[in-house]
Amino acid sequence: MVKVTVGSGPGSGPAPEIPARVQSLLNVAARDATVELFAAYRVTIAFVPGADAHTPMSDLAALGIVRFAAPALAGTVVLGASRSTLRQSNARGTPDRDWAAELANQFFGRFKLKLLRAGFELWSMAPVTVSGRLLATAVSQPQFAPITFRDSQGGSIGVWIEIEPTGPLNVTAPPAAGEIPSEGDIILF
């Protein structure tokens, strides 16, 4: 589930509430984007509903991290995967850390397009990677439970999304059909 951080700074006061429909949109977009991302690399994964947030995902090999922003919010996406899942999805043999950053970047692209189609626009910054072994426990706290998946061979995927609203969130009318590229399209600019 997407975590909303409230009162993120000294004197910041209470953060605005996120409307339930926006919260639902974020959660569904995150689940769908993860499944579709790994399917693009011929790895079948399944969402694990109600995963136990108290059990650390100790098999994560690396975590890819992408910061993002939108009007009235900032946030972070973290995508972690076990070594076996990273290698199943990586036909070119890219090092695990680099591949985790690339997967996080591609996940964010899919997540962002799903939200944009619903009238909610986000912008990302360059992805980075850290060792999953060091951070899996820190990001698996009860108050920050991951959206959890398992692949067909038992490997783990965890997605954490944290947003920090600073004002009312603006969801606009979605762009017209055909104005937004499809996932996987090559865009030249």
Provide key terms for this protein.
189 residues; alpha+beta; Chemotaxis protein chec; eight-stranded mixed β-sheet; 4 helices; globular
Please describe what this structure looks like:
- The protein has 189 residues and is an alpha+beta fold.
- The chain has one domain: 3-Layer(aba) Sandwich (Chemotaxis protein chec), CATH 3.40.1550.10.
- It is built from 4 helices and 8 strands, in the order βαβββααββαββ.
- Strands 1, 2, 3, 4, 5, 6, 7 and 8 form an 8-stranded mixed sheet that branches.
- β3 and β4 form a beta hairpin.
- α1 crosses α3 (96-117).
- The protein is globular and about 40 Å long.
- Mean pLDDT is 79; it is low at 6-11.
Number of helices: 4
Mean pLDDT: 79
Q: How far do the termini sit from each other?
A: 34 Å
User: What percentage of residues falls in helices of 4 or more residues?
Assistant: 25-40%
What is the level-2 CATH architecture name?
3-Layer(aba) Sandwich
Q: Structural class of the secondary elements?
A: alpha+beta
The radius of gyration computed from the alpha-carbon positions, rounded to a whole number of angstroms, is 16 Å
What gross morphology would you assign?
Answer: globular
Q: At the third CATH level, what is the topology name?
A: Chemotaxis protein chec
Number of domains: 1
Q: What fraction of the residues are assigned to beta strands by DSSP?
A: 15-25%
**Largest sheet, described in full?**
8 strands, mixed
Instruction: Using the coordinates above, name the CATH class.
Output: Alpha Beta
Give the SSE order as H and E letters: EHEEEHHEEHEE
The fourth-level CATH homologous superfamily is CheC-like
Uncertain segments: 6-11
Number of β-strand runs: 8
